[in-house]
Design goal:
Helix content: 25-40%
Strand content: 15-25%
Strand order of the largest sheet: 4-5-6-9-10
Largest sheet: 5 strands, mixed
Number of strands: 10
Number of helices: 9
Order of helices and strands: HEEEHHHHHHHEEEEEEEH
Oligomer: single chain
Radius of gyration: 28 Å
């Protein structure tokens, strides 16, 4: 009190708002200093909201994107965006380096008012990534990089875009009987890499050329699978066979 009374004009009052890595949160403190002496140091009760937002984004930049709540939907959005960027460079880059470099633009508006890793768990990360695209491109990505592919059996199978050069469709072999050619996306420019699975969901063939597989490798694969799964349906002509999700195709009703 004596120092404050006699040296009031020399006192420096400052607010520090910064990311605390140990606490995984933004911490705000209010300090009063006289030269090298700290006369008071206490939590700030109401720090500036924009300063908190900047500190939070700086914390994410240092800690990495793992700080964010990556749901399956959010990760799928990111990988689909990367697929489009890889094949059409004018699309936004959704790689980790690019996202970290542009946090303020794409993430900033969605974290206003948040202060910690715990707060970030309520973030709709998929919506934040989706907002990178204008409405027209959101329609385009649904056409050219769909989330799922409907196979001949009628099942809707998710496409895995983890590798933007070779998106994967993992599907049981019996569900694609009748497909004569490899399905393609991105206006037909990119063939899907088919992971053809056994009834036990184990890969028996990986191919981007389904027609060649039917013509050449199918009969060896069929011989092996028929021995291991004798109750299942292994037709001689996969081009004309009925695809099925069941052990065997169901006879038509009526």
């Amino acid at each position: 009190a004596l120092l404050e009374r006699h040296f009031a004009e020399q006192l420096v009052r400052e607010t520090q708002v910064a990311w605390d890595a140990a606490a995984q949160a933004v911490r705000a403190r209010e300090r009063v200093r006289l030269g090298a002496l700290t006369l008071a140091d206490a939590p700030h009760p109401a720090p500036d909201a924009e300063a908190v937002q900047r500190a939070l984004l700086q914390g994410i930049a240092r800690e990495g994107l793992a700080l964010l709540p990556w749901t399956k939907q959010a990760r799928q959005w990111q990988t689909r965006l990367q697929f489009m960027h890889r094949h059409q460079p004018d699309w936004p880059d959704a790689g980790e380096e690019a996202l970290l470099a542009t946090l303020e633009e794409w993430l900033g508006p969605h974290v206003y008012g948040m202060r910690s890793r715990a707060d970030l768990q309520s973030l709709n990360l998929a919506a934040a990534l989706e907002a990178l695209l204008p409405w027209e491109k959101r329609q385009q990505i649904e056409r050219e990089a769909p989330t799922h592919m409907t196979v001949p059996s009628g099942s809707r199978i998710a496409i895995d875009y983890t590798d933007p050069d070779r998106p994967v469709l993992a599907v049981r072999l019996q569900e694609v009987f009748g497909w004569k050619e490899t399905p393609r996306i991105a206006k037909g420019a990119v063939p899907l890499t088919l992971h053809l699975l056994s009834p036990a969901q184990r890969p028996v063939q990986v191919t981007q050329d389904l027609a060649s597989f039917w013509q050449n490798a199918y009969f060896e694969v069929k011989k092996d699978l028929k021995g291991r799964y004798p109750k299942h349906y292994w037709p001689d002509d996969p081009h004309e066979a009925i695809a099925t999700r069941r052990t065997r195709p169901q006879p038509p009703r009526g």
